[in-house]
Amino acid sequence: MSAVLNLEVPQDVLESARLSAADLKTELAVALYTQQRLSIGKARELAGMSLWEFRRLLTSRRIAPHYDDGDLAEDAKTLRELGRL
Description:
Layout (H helix, E strand, L loop, with lengths): L10 H7 L3 H14 L5 H8 L3 H10 L8 H13 L4
Helix pairs in contact: 2-3, 3-4
């Protein structure tokens, strides 16, 4: 199991931002994903969501998935190996 870091955030800061602790984790996950500092898997883990829930959240915020030419080439190779392309 991974080590856990506890971060102290004053309650009045959360109240000023109108966020719960869970909301703050979600916002941090989205921000780090958007900055390409976390993969979608790690971001959804931080947010405490399933992959599909996190993808829906990103879609609702109009945040495009990180998918580049290298990802496309890798997916095409996998599909060819599976005989599906």
